[in-house]
TrEMBL record:
Belongs to the MoxR family. One of its GO terms (molecular function) is ATP binding. This is Magnesium chelatase. Coiled coil: none annotated. The lineage of its organism: Bacteria, Bacillati, Bacillota, Bacilli, Bacillales.
């Protein structure tokens, strides 16, 4: 594994037990300049994960608690008139952080949800007709509760498409939970975390991820998987070209994390469900047959022929 990435993961392991794969996927999204939607029940460590990641790379961390009465200006900031200077001055909103936790994003109105669209896609925001660039790196991790739907607003397809990955943490095993209680009984591990990398290191890793080699056969494999989602009997709307590009970027970042400078078919198979599943719109018959997007992706990956070439030809 890439030595710099291993430092971050070991740091996160001090406060997150048994969630190495979730931490890896979060770093995949960060290095691919994407964002994460984390769907799970309260209390499994979603907030702790993103805070530990921010502290590990010495990034500014902002948290937005999404509520029904939250306004776009509460996210983006607002211009306030200063009588001394006779001019409007911009007061930054929490979106201006390097790592932003959008907590329970589905509890706010679509108008406020859409305030994130430009920031997540272009890393800029528009205030009073003026475009402001966000600091780099810029990473949004949004959470939502999959159980409680009363008083929530489902994320529209355009919003879901801005998330590179969607994943679930799940409950820890009994052994992992016991270890968690043991650590917390003796000390507070999060307070002892120190940065192991800095923002410049992350920006350099992002550039390295972009330079990772992906063979034409692998690119064609991604296209075939995307095409299969558009022609599946259970899927009304399949993966878009943006989803294909997202999967390619994610595979490059994952390869870098694994210490490789090339992408393999295994990378595509591992990441495709995380990148494509939340972008699929299912037909009613899928619900009748109790089929979920993740199950459909498993079937598609089992049917699409895997490229034989695994060693890159550069």
């Amino acid at each position: 594994m890439n030595e710099q990435i291993e430092k971050i993961l070991l740091n996160i392991d001090k406060v997150m037990i048994g969630k190495r794969n979730i931490a890896e996927l979060s770093l995949v999204s960060l290095l691919a300049k994407g964002h994460v939607l984390l769907e799970d029940v309260p209390g499994v460590g979603k907030t702790m994960l993103v805070k530990a990641l921010a502290k590990s790379i010495n990034a500014s961390f902002k948290r937005i608690q999404f509520t029904p009465d939250l306004l776009p200006s509460d996210v983006l900031g607002v211009s306030i008139y200063n009588p001394k200077t006779l001019a409007f001055e911009y007061r930054e909103g929490p979106i201006m952080g390097n790592i932003v936790l959008a907590d329970e994003i589905n509890r706010t109105s679509p108008k406020t949800q859409s305030a994130l669209l430009e920031a997540m896609e272009e890393a800029t925001i528009s205030i009073d007709g003026e475009t402001k660039a966000l600091g780099q790196p810029f990473f949004v991790m949004a959470t939502q509760n999959p159980i409680e739907y009363e008083g929530t607003y489902p994320l529209p397809e355009a919003q879901l498409d801005r998330f590179l990955l969607k994943m679930k943490m799940g409950y820890p095993t009994e052994t992992e939970e016991y270890e968690l209680l043991t650590r917390m009984a003796e000390a507070t591990p999060f307070a002892e975390l120190t940065p192991v990398l800095h923002l410049d290191d992350i920006l350099a890793l992002q550039q390295q991820a972009e330079a990772v080699f992906i063979d034409a056969t692998i690119r064609n494999y991604i296209v075939q998987i995307a095409t299969a989602t558009r022609n599946h009997k259970y899927i009304y709307l399949g993966a878009s070209p943006r989803a294909s590009l997202a999967l390619m970027r994610a595979c490059k970042a994952y390869a870098l994390i694994q210490g490789r400078d090339y992408v393999t078919p295994d990378d595509v198979q591992y990441l495709a469900p995380y990148v494509f599943s939340h972008r699929l719109i299912l037909k009613p018959e899928a619900r009748y047959d109790d089929m979920m997007p993740e199950q459909i992706m498993e079937r598609i990956l089992a049917k699409v022929a895997v490229p034989a070439r695994r060693v890159p030809v550069k």
